[in-house]
Every structure is written in structure tokens, then in C-alpha cells.
Design a protein that fits this description.
The complex is a heterotrimer of chains A (52), B (218) and C (242).
Chain A: H1 8-51
Chain B: H1 2-13, H2 19-37, H3 41-62, H4 66-73, H5 76-82, H6 87-116, H7 123-148, H8 155-183, H9 188-217
Chain C: H1 9-41, H2 55-82, H3 85-117, H4 125-146, H5 150-178, H6 198-241
The chains are: A mainly alpha (52), B mainly alpha (218), C mainly alpha (242).
Chain lengths: 52, 218, 242
């Protein structure tokens, strides 16, 4: 850990907050992608079974 | 075009048209401010230009969703759209009607309400001037926002969210003109820019508004 | 083969399928390298102390916040002119990322501002413009969320994006006129005199490249999701009518 001096709190807060925000947007995107993909696969299967 | 204008004006003035509502809202807002920040005359003097401008802006926001929504509900908007009148002119006319029923009365009322906020004597003229020049832009931007949200069931709140950021430049230059007028720093510069904004919105936004209406009536 | 081939959703899906993974990895590597390099191996500024390390998050996110809006403007124009659905969906997919970037820029700026300027927030032109940009992003996303029909939503949000861009630019000049600021000038100009020194410059460059790649990876992933969601919507409609 480098010596952050008097501003240790500010610097770590900025890093933690930003990485948290990035994490949230990445997680939300990936989670939604997986969910939509799964439901779409199910729907495609249903659809092709009925008409296939 | 004149017919639509007079029709809108008549509708607005009749009961339930919301003609007096904006004025009453403006009055109440101006009355509430001293309760919020205290009766100190020098403090009120400083904030008066900003409060009056923000008040006028919010008051003109109140009746925006009526610009197209009521016509859309009873189907007359479809009729107007199929009329030979270009949709761009319709949007501009609607904005003009909105201005005549809210912007103009607010402009006339503002100097009187300025007395309540201890607006310095030199400010009344510049307040009226800046509102006179700036409020047409508010109505035009509002008509554009109303055209965007006309098909939505609960468009009112969304409309404010869309329109308020667009009001920022008008508000900045409008309130700044009044402040400079009071301090005697040449309010002509912000007033000229304000006039530029108004003319620019009047020239361009009817097309954007008409585009949005066409999409919504599809 | 022309660029517009990618406007075909099937072709877009096929190509991006191979691109998303690697760009995520590369973005991760670049951001990790840049941040670790910046956080552990750069000296403190003689005036700002260790707070200078916030620059590795602040500058890239602020750049992306603006550039994402510009990207949305371009894709909105492409949708309005050439009616490519992928373009409209890419604009929709980009907005939440833009909001996050704006928030990060505002947040890191506030945390940096407190020790340096003695305040978390000042009505400085740059800060104010970012707040206004944030409001524009919110309005844009709210309009997308409010309209049910996807094509209508794409049209209306594109018009809003166009008009919003003009007003955002106007607000930028308006707030400049309205208040002189605390914020320093550009950190990254071609003018060597004004530029920050090399020690900070290379890790910052890595972070900027990483943020750009991360945005590309995210926007492609989200656009793919939107395309899938659109197809899912079509299938459910057909099932219901069948």
C-alpha cells in the first residue's frame, strides 16, 4: 500500500466509489444479457416445437 | 391558423382552461419564498430576480401538457394533422397560444410581484424586458416537449423532466439580464443572447415538434 | 463490403459475438494496469498530494460521459436517416453507461474538490455542465422507458437527443458566461506547456484506453441484449396471436 498521506480517505473513497459504480453497470448489463438470452432460447424452442 | 389560435385562446379562458392557474401558482410561489428564507429585505432583494424567473418558468410549465393532450384525447389533433395546414405551423401556433395565455400574463404580473420580493427599482423594467423576450422560448420548448409526450398516458411528470434541462440557457441569460440591469452592468449582452435563443427556438423547434407529432400520430 | 452490412442484426450478432469477450478482457487488463500503475507507482503531486491519483478515474470517466452522448447523437442520426434498428438500439444501450460515467466523474470530482478547493460542490461551469448533462441522460432514459412501441420510442428519443445536444452545447456556453470557475483547464492538450507531466500521462493513457474499450464491450453486449429482447418480444406477440 502506498503512503497516501493526509488524503488517504478521499483517494480510497474515490477509487472505491468509482469501481463500485463500474461494477454495478457491468453486473447489470451481464445479468440482463444472460436473462434475456435464456428466456429467448426457451421461447425459440417453444416456438420451433409448436411449428416444427 | 388564426382560427386555431382564437380557438385555443377561447378554450384556455373558459372555465377549467387553466388560464388563471399559472398566474395563481406564480403568486403563491412568490408569497411562499419569504416564508422559506425569512423576511430580510436585503436578502430578498438579492434573490428576487432569480426567484421571479424560476417562478415564471415553473408556472409556464404547469399548463404545458394541455397544449396537445386535450386535442389528442378528443381526436381533434388527428383532424388538425390532416388539415392542409403544415404541422410545423400548427406547433408554432399552439406555442403562440400557450405564450399568450401564460407567458404574457406572467410577464405583466412579474413586476407587480417584484414589489413583494423587494425587487430594486431599476429591476422592474429589465425584468419585464427579459421575460418578454425569454418566455416565448419557454413556450416553444414546452410545445416541443408536449409534442414528444403527447401519446403517453402519464406524460406530465416526464414532460417536466424533459423540458426543464432545456430551459437552463433561457433561465441563465434571463435572470442574469435582470441582475445586470439592477447593478447597471449593461444587461444588453445577456438580453441579446436571450433574444438569439428565442429566435433560434422559434425557427427550429417547430420542425422538431412536428416531427415528434408525426411519429406520435402514426 | 460496406460498413452498413453491420446494420443487419444477424450480421451484427455474428461479428460482435467474437468481439465482446476479447474487448472485455483487454479493457480489464488496461484498466487494471493503469489503475495499479497510477495508484501504486506514481509520485504524489507536490501541491495536491496523493489526491492527484483520482485523475486516473476522473478524466477517463468525464471524457466518456461526453463522448457517449456524442455517440448516441450519431447513432440517433443514423436511425433517423437510414432506419437501421441496430443503430437505435445501440443508442438506447449506451445511455445507462453514459449515466454511470457522468456519475463517476461528478463523484470523483466532488471527493477531489473537498480537500483541494475546500468544497464538494461549486457552481463552476464545468461541474454545472456535467450536472446538466446528467439531467439530459436521465430525461433520455426516462423517455425510452415510458414509450411502449419500440419504433416510436426510437424515433422520439432520437429527436430528443438531437434537440438535447443543441441545448446541452448552449448550456455549456451559458454557464461559462454565468460564472467563472475553479476548475483547471484541459489536462490533456497538445500544448506541452499546459499538459500534465509524463509520469502521470502514461498510466492515464492506459486508463483512458481501458475505459473506451470497456464502453465498447458494454455497449455491444447491451445492444446484443436489446436485439434479443426485441426478438423475444416478437415471438411472444406471435405466440399470443397464434
Amino acid at each position: 500500500m502506498p503512503d497516501l498521506g493526509a488524503y488517504a480517505f478521499e483517494v480510497s473513497l474515490a477509487y472505491a466509489g468509482s469501481l463500485l459504480a463500474l461494477g454495478i453497470v457491468i453486473w447489470a448489463s451481464v445479468a440482463r444479457a444472460a436473462r434475456v438470452r435464456r428466456t429467448l432460447d426457451e421461447a425459440e424452442k417453444r416456438w420451433s416445437n409448436k411449428n416444427g | 391558423m388564426i382560427h386555431i389560435l382564437t380557438r385555443d385562446l377561447r378554450l384556455a379562458i373558459r372555465a377549467g382552461g387553466g388560464f388563471g392557474l399559472a398566474l395563481a401558482f406564480f403568486l403563491i410561489l412568490v408569497v411562499l419564498v419569504p416564508f422559506g428564507i425569512g423576511p430580510d429585505a436585503t436578502l430578498l432583494e438579492i434573490v428576487a430576480p432569480g426567484i421571479l424567473w424560476v417562478g415564471a418558468l415553473l408556472a409556464s410549465l404547469l399548463s404545458l401538457d394541455r397544449i396537445f393532450a386535450t386535442d389528442h384525447e378528443d381526436g381533434s389533433l388527428e383532424l388538425l394533422a390532416t388539415a392542409p395546414l403544415p404541422l410545423e405551423v400548427l406547433v408554432a401556433t399552439k406555442a403562440a397560444a400557450h405564450w399568450l395565455t401564460t407567458g404574457l400574463p406572467l410577464t405583466l404580473a412579474a413586476p407587480v410581484l417584484g414589489i413583494l420580493l423587494n425587487l430594486p427599482a431599476g429591476g422592474h423594467f429589465w425584468l419585464t424586458m427579459s421575460l418578454l423576450i425569454g418566455t416565448p422560448a419557454l413556450s416553444m420548448i414546452g410545445a416541443f416537449g408536449a409534442a414528444l409526450t403527447v401519446g403517453l398516458k402519464r406524460g406530465g411528470l416526464l414532460l417536466s423532466l424533459l423540458v426543464l434541462p432545456l430551459y437552463v440557457p433561457t433561465l441563465i441569460f434571463g435572470a442574469d439580464a435582470v441582475r445586470r440591469g439592477i447593478d447597471g452592468f449593461g444587461p444588453q449582452t445577456p438580453l441579446t443572447i436571450l433574444a438569439g435563443i428565442t429566435l433560434g427556438t422559434l425557427a427550429l423547434l417547430p420542425f422538431a415538434g412536428a416531427g415528434a407529432l408525426r411519429v406520435n400520430l402514426r | 463490403m460496406s460498413f452498413w452490412e453491420y446494420a443487419n442484426p444477424r450480421r451484427f450478432m455474428a461479428v460482435t459475438d467474437r468481439v465482446v469477450g476479447p474487448s472485455f478482457v483487454l479493457a480489464g487488463v488496461l484498466i487494471t494496469t493503469g489503475l495499479i500503475w497510477g495508484f501504486f507507482f506514481t509520485p504524489d503531486d507536490f501541491r495536491q498530494g496523493s489526491t492527484v491519483k483520482i485523475i486516473y478515474l476522473h478524466v477517463p470517466s468525464a471524457m466518456m460521459a461526453i463522448n457517449i452522448w456524442i455517440m448516441m447523437l450519431v447513432t440517433s442520426l443514423v436511425w433517423l436517416i437510414r432506419r437501421h434498428h441496430v443503430s437505435a438500439l445501440a443508442a438506447k444501450a449506451a445511455a445507462p453507461i453514459g449515466v454511470t460515467m457522468t456519475l463517476i466523474a461528478l463523484f470523483t470530482g466532488a471527493v477531489w474538490g473537498q480537500p483541494m478547493w475546500g468544497t464538494y460542490w461549486a457552481w463552476d461551469p464545468r461541474l454545472t455542465s456535467f450536472l446538466i448533462l446528467f439531467l439530459f441522460y436521465l430525461g433520455y432514459m426516462a423517455l425510452w422507458a415510458a414509450i411502449e412501441d419500440p419504433d416510436t420510442a426510437a424515433d422520439l428519443t432520437s429527436i430528443l437527443c438531437l434537440v438535447g445536444s443543441v441545448f446541452a452545447l448552449l448550456s455549456r456556453y451559458a454557464v461559462n458566461f454565468w460564472n467563472q470557475g475553479l476548475h483547471q483547464g484541459a489536462s490533456l492538450s497538445l500544448d506541452k506547456e499546459e499538459n500534465i507531466s509524463d509520469v502521470f500521462w502514461f498510466p492515464l493513457l492506459a486508463c483512458i484506453a481501458g475505459f473506451i474499450l470497456l464502453f465498447i464491450a458494454l455497449v455491444l453486449l447491451r445492444t446484443r441484449t436489446e436485439i434479443r429482447a426485441r426478438r423475444l418480444h416478437a415471438i411472444t406477440l406471435r405466440e399470443r396471436s397464434a
